[in-house]
């Protein structure tokens, strides 16, 4: 199964979804990719790959919906040795955290370092999602994030109150990933030509 990037015929991308255990990442991933619902909590074991198309994200001039793979990575530290292999050739990273859990806020730096900085991804290729679980009260107040996290796009997610808001933000993010990868590819092609 190809995990790396663009082909000449289709617009495609590989995204990596990482998170803390019990942050609501899998339920959110199912919602954003329109996959089946999971009603009970089962920790993600290793990785789960969701393939999907988004009709709102198209290739530059073909009008064809882009195809994506979203790699839903288990957040348990016992899988840490697998993370570099899972991240290889990814085009973007979505870091999901439970905004109501103080320890998550303290550990986002580690996730960003491991999944974004070490992979040499641009800020536009990273999205932070402060996920609020049902019944949590969802305080969308500003979160105090340290540099370089405060430069990243941060969205709040609550699937009970406003599910379409997170869907629209995710579509914007997919478009920015496609643009970033396309620009990088154009630069590589120009460097080969010159």
From TrEMBL:
GO terms for molecular function: GTP binding. InterPro entries: P-loop_NTPase (IPR027417). Gene3D superfamilies: P-loop containing nucleotide triphosphate hydrolases (3.40.50.300). Keywords: GTP-binding, Nucleotide-binding. GO terms for cellular component: cilium; intraciliary transport particle B. Pfam families: Roc (PF08477). Component of the IFT complex B, at least composed of IFT20, IFT22, IFT25, IFT27, IFT46, IFT52, TRAF3IP1/IFT54, IFT57, IFT74, IFT80, IFT81, and IFT88. Interacts with IFT88. Interacts with CFAP61. Small GTPase-like component of the intraflagellar transport (IFT) complex B. Belongs to the small GTPase superfamily. Rab family. This is Intraflagellar transport protein 22 homolog. It comes from Crocuta crocuta (Spotted hyena).
């Amino acid at each position: 199964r190809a995990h790396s990037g663009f082909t000449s015929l289709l617009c495609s991308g590989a995204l990596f979804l990482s998170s803390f255990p019990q942050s609501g990442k899998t339920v959110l991933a199912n919602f954003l990719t329109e996959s089946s619902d999971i009603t009970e909590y089962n920790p993600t074991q290793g990785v789960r790959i969701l393939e999907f198309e988004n009709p709102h994200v198209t290739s530059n001039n073909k009008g064809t919906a882009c195809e994506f793979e979203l790699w839903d990575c288990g957040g348990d530290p016992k899988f840490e040795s697998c993370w570099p292999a899972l991240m290889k050739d990814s085009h973007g990273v979505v870091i999901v955290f439970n905004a109501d859990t103080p320890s998550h806020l303290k550990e986002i730096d580690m996730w960003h370092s491991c999944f974004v900085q070490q992979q040499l991804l641009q800020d536009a290729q990273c999205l932070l999602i402060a996920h609020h679980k049902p019944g949590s009260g969802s305080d969308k107040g500003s979160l105090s994030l340290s540099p370089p996290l405060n430069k990243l796009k941060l969205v709040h997610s609550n699937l009970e109150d406003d599910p379409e808001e997170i869907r629209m933000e995710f579509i914007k993010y997919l478009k920015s990933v496609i643009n970033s990868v396309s620009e990088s590819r154009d630069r590589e092609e120009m460097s080969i030509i010159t």
